[in-house]
Amino acid sequence: MPFQNYLIDAVNDVIAWDIPDEALADAVTAQASLMARANPDEMMTLIDSN
Asked: How does pLDDT run across 15-48, given as a tens digit for each residue?
């Protein structure tokens, strides 16, 4: 399943964590990548290139 299909679930997970606001985007990306069983570093490269 594509990484994007996990974004809403990742947001719901990460929003409950006690992390600074500026770290939320990276945390959501990493969580969605883990849920999709993808490498978070590869996902950041794909997102940055778009």
From this structure: 999 999 999 999 998 898 888 887 666 655 555 5
- Residue 9: count of CB within 10 angstroms of its CB: 13
- Transcribe 13-48 into DSSP letters: HHTTS---GGGHHHHHHHHHHHHTT--HHHHHHHHH
Q: Which amino acid makes up residue 10?
A: A
- Amino acid code (one letter) for 4: Q
Smallest Cα–Cα separation from 10: which of 41, 36, 38? Answer: 36
Domain boundaries, the chain: 3-49
- Rounded to whole angstroms, how far apart are CA atoms 13 and 42? 21
Report pTM: 0.71
